[in-house]
Amino acid sequence: MNNIIKLSYRNLLRNGRRTLLTASLITLGVIFVLIYTALSGSFKGYMVGQITDSMMGHIQIHKKGYVAAVDNLPLDRNLPKMALEFIEPKIKENPLVESYSYRIKFGAMFSNFESTTNIRLNAIYPEAEFKTLPDLKKRITGMEDELKAGGIVIPELLAKGMKVKVGDTIVLVANNKSGSVNGVNLKVAGIVGQMSGPGGRDGYIHMDDAKKVLRMGLEVEVSEIVVRLKDVETLKEGMASLDSILEKKNKEGQSAFEVHSWEQLSPFYNIIKMIDIMNLSIKIILISIVLISILNVMIMSVFERVREIGTIAAMGTPPLTIVKLFLTEGLMLGVLGAILGSALSVGILYVLNIVKITYSFGKETGLVLSPVLHVNEVMGVSLIVIAIALVASISPAIKAARLDPVEALRSH
Amino acid sequence: MLNAQHLCKTYRSGEVDLEVIKDFSLSIEQSEFISLVGPSGSGKSTMLNMLGCLDTPTSGEIIINNTKITGMSKTQMAHFRGENIGFIFQSFNLIPVLSVYENIEYPLIMIQNLPEQEREERILKLLDEVGMLDQKDKTPDQISGGQMQRVAIARALITNPKLIFADEPTANLDTKTAYKIIDLMKKIQMEHQSTFVFATHDEKIVSTVDRIITIVDGELVDDKRISHE
């Protein structure tokens, strides 16, 4: 095999400029794919992080039919105490789960004593909520320490519209499940930055205040349970591990609860899917570049060396060895392109991380691109290039091996 | 050593069958120095190719060293050539990316897979015999035509074949070099007891061989042995 590699290497050097051009083309393709993957991965990571770490968590559990009616924030589709007693142990005992948080979602009237508007609220146990959504605090400005009972965190837009600032007292008026109206005075404890997507414009109050305004008494009913996994990469396994929750049936014989991943609930998942599709498209373009360039070079190589192939065949080189010779040439081109492309990509990304390129997304500005290239991605792209180089060389190699030595020796 | 019986070779040209070799039978013994002669298009090269296991006859049978060649697969024929037959070509056909040494080494590695030490001993001995030892590291484009043919002869002999086929081996050489190459082949034939079969027009070769087989229109018209004593 060493001799086949040596001969293939020398054959590649025979047309050094052509080899260099082909390898450069493959290298450029690899760089393009890896840089794009790293940049889009950085953006995707930011998006997923924002959605899961400051808004939605990884998994949400609701009573059957809640998600379909979520726009109305229905209090009659909350999870009662019995349901929580059924679900909670299954979450607590799950080794994939990091933490979980109860929420009551409801709509209320928000008054600054001069004017009144609507507000969507999440009633939370702050400690559990901030543990489950570790980046939520970063979105809140003006809040000292934790959200305590008697405080409210209001959305940025509402604060501007109602000219309310941290420390101001407001009145919250809400209807409870049975329709009776109640109100509480609360102090603005912080202002939460707006985010696109479900829950992105919600305010937050302490669970104890929600119990008061909604007159819930001691038995808490919650709208949803937000679950954070130890690793977002285990989302599928996490979802599967919570399947047992769905075994509980309601009166209609259907599952009494719904378990959704953030991907199912967030419209941003479609953007992430688009990024993945773009990634795949770029890889297909790379595959085409490698396939066409290596096929082209190898076909030329066979045509240029017909008599030489006839000579080695006449000397007794078995057809399989001739196939190996040409496959090795194509393979070496692929390996060269993959190594150069990967090395240069790592270098370019290193520079990009030093330079720190910023970008804006929606209302958020000054976001820093932090492209990261995973070893798996480099290995994956390199393997694709090498495999395609091999595939592209098969047809020319077989053509070379099938040449009739007599005809080949006659050619010039 | 070689026995060919009733060989026929027909090529299809459009709707017409061209019979280029017609009922040709031949027997070759070990250590013979033979020339196949005849006018252009008489079938010399076709005959050489069939006897050298590069081409297959349309009908007839070839037996070399008690092995029936006809009916072998392409791969079997390749293996048989690698073990038993050497070729010398008109245009030398050295591999341009390999040095003189590596060109001779090629059959030992790619075909016979011999260990390095044995390869080196054989190559250096043969390079010395063909007078190319001091040129062993040069590539084909750095040596003359005569030197290339010497390397080609060494490459043909390196596997110790008993049969060597040469198609117009002196056609691309000047007269002086051609004589030197013929002398070299004769010397090697004597030393190695190998059999050389030439397809040639070259009178210089014809005058040195000890058997001349004449082909005209694909038929054997004369087979005479010549004594040089």
Q: Counting H and I runs of at least 4 residues, what is the number of helices of chain A?
A: 14
Strand order of the largest sheet of chain A: 2-3-8-5-7-6
What is the CATH topology descriptor of chain B?
Answer: Rossmann fold
CATH class term of chain B? Alpha Beta
Radius of gyration based on Cα positions of chain A: 31 Å
Largest sheet of chain A: 6 strands, mixed, barrel
Give the tally of structural domains of chain A: 2
Largest interface: A-B, 24 and 28 residues
Secondary structural class of chain A: alpha+beta
Question: What is the CATH-assigned architecture of chain B?
Answer: 3-Layer(aba) Sandwich
Main β-sheet description of chain B: 6 strands, mixed
User: Helical amount among residues of chain A, as a percent range?
Assistant: 40-55%
Regions of chain A with pLDDT < 50 over 5+ consecutive residues? none
Specify the number of helices of chain B. Answer: 7
Rg of chain B is 18 Å
Spatial gap, N to C terminus of chain B? 25 Å
Inertia-based shape of chain A: elongated
Query: What portion of the residues of chain A fall into strands of 2 or more residues?
Result: 15-25%
Number of domains of chain B: 1
Poorly predicted sequence stretches spanning 5 or more consecutive residues of chain B: none
Q: For this entry, what is the oligomeric state of its chains?
A: heterodimer
